[in-house]
Design a protein that fits this description.
Shape: elongated
Strand order of the largest sheet: 1-2
Strand content: under 5%
Low-confidence stretches: 12-26
Oligomer: single chain
Number of strands: 2
């Protein structure tokens, strides 16, 4: 019996291998952070306010020159000597010549005073924050990584500094020290008491990082402790440090304003927001603009940094935000 040869069906063509979709460039952690920040309207407004006052800090002489007055220049024609030196005109003397009005009695231009006050207040706040961040990060990393006696000594120093009545000490130091640069002294005194908070945060992050696999691999590979701290530990704590730095700045601004308000901060005629608020208290009922202008600047700056810090903390350190 003749059998017919069986023919196998032609091989079906295998589906073309499609290449895996390439990961879109620019989607690293910091790019994702920027994308998340751009999504929040409050962050955009906060960044605009921060950029405005930062510009005032950097270019205060140029900006105040736009108004045509220096912060220490008197304009006696802008105040009424028969009304106790109150500004002439509505809203505290607001006019084309004085954009935000003038100070009572002296007639100094408020726009120039506020701009230069931003330079002094924010310069002290930023400088003190830099001291706090550098000292706190260094102490926290050292305590968390080396442990043992180093951790014990630094932790007890943190506890001692945090338990000290810092405001009383600041007032005493600023009252006793007279023939010194007040801005440098305020920066040093404020920074002296601010580092333990961020040091505790960094210490906790370092304790969780120092036993990670990549740190152990670097240690086995022969890397020294300082190389490990610089290349492996520090980048791991950078996110929380950046987030908490923006939360420290409002406290520094408020501390400087409080010391100046109490009369132990920057001395006249150097302008400062806290000093201007203290001087305006006597005129809040007769010239409210004199009180509102520096108070509004202080409020907006603190609010902007607080909102920005909260957003960064939620993104970079979600565990620390309690969410």
């Amino acid at each position: 019996m003749k059998t017919t040869p069986t023919t196998s069906p032609p091989p079906t063509a295998s589906p073309p291998v499609t290449a895996a979709p390439a990961v879109r460039a620019g989607t690293g952690p910091w790019q994702l952070v920027r994308a998340e920040l751009r999504r929040r309207t409050s962050v955009k407004l906060s960044l605009a306010v921060v950029a405005l006052f930062a510009l005032m800090t950097v270019a205060a002489p140029l900006i105040s020159a736009l108004g045509g007055w220096s912060p220490e220049e008197f304009d006696k024609s802008a105040v009424d000597p028969y009304l106790g030196g109150l500004p002439i005109g509505p809203l505290g003397g607001v006019s084309a010549e004085h954009w935000l009005g003038v100070e009572p009695v002296t007639g100094r231009d408020l726009f120039a005073r506020v701009v230069h006050g931003a330079q002094v207040s924010l310069l002290i706040a930023f400088s003190a924050t830099a001291i706090v961040v550098v000292a706190g990060t260094a102490a926290g990393i050292a305590a968390g990584y080396f442990g043992g006696r180093t951790d014990t000594v630094l932790s007890r120093l943190m506890d001692l500094t945090m338990s000290f009545p810092s405001l009383i000490f600041m007032i005493a130091m600023m009252s006793v020290a007279r023939d010194v640069n007040r801005i440098v002294l305020m920066t040093a005194v404020i920074g002296l008491f601010g580092w333990p908070g961020i040091a505790r945060v960094v210490r906790g992050q370092t304790l969780s990082l120092k036993h990670r696999e990549y740190v152990d691999a670097a240690r086995v590979g022969g890397s020294g402790p300082w190389r490990i701290l610089a290349r492996d530990i520090l980048p791991g704590v950078a996110g929380p440090v950046i987030a908490y730095t923006t939360l420290i700045v409002p406290g520094m601004i408020a501390t400087e304003a409080a010391l100046s308000y109490l009369g132990v901060g920057v001395r006249p005629p150097t302008p400062s927001w806290g000093q201007m608020i203290a001087e305006s208290v006597a005129y809040y009922d007769t010239d409210p603009m004199y009180f509102l202008v520096p108070s509004l600047c202080l409020f907006l700056t603190v609010l902007a940094f607080t909102l920005l810090g909260d957003a960064l903390r939620d993104i970079l350190d979600p565990r620390g935000s309690g969410t």
